[in-house]
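Single-chain item
Fold in token form
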Amino acid sequence: MNIDSANLDVTRAARCLYRTPTGRQCSFNGSGASGGLCARHAAMEEQSQSADFSSILAAGGSNAFHSAESINRSLAELHALLAKDLISPRRAAVLAYIASLLLRTLPGIQEEAAGAAPQNRPIKIIFDMPHPPREDAPPQS
């Protein structure tokens, strides 16, 4: 290894660890105490970690997630936050998954509110199962 390649390796190691969506690395010095990020990207990371978007996502107050319409509004706000890069994709995915679970429970909540217990529903039996192929069946003895 010659001197120029050693200096290049040290320079790359000292660069900020932030990568753009296209994969390019920030060219500023990132060897500070902020986890290898430069001052600008460390401030962005801190802002996204400490930001509280609960008031935006739960705009309906205490009844924010009791209807499909309010969950849809919350998902639209979540989409806007993600598009503005104010929330991490991982956190957005977790919140979207929670919203899907909330949507799945809405029919049960509506049944309980109507007074019908979920176990009192009539059982639906489907009899149209496909028949096995007859020509491949072994001969009966």
In short: Residues 89-114 form the longest helix (26 residues). Residues 11 and 29 are 9 Å apart (CA to CA).
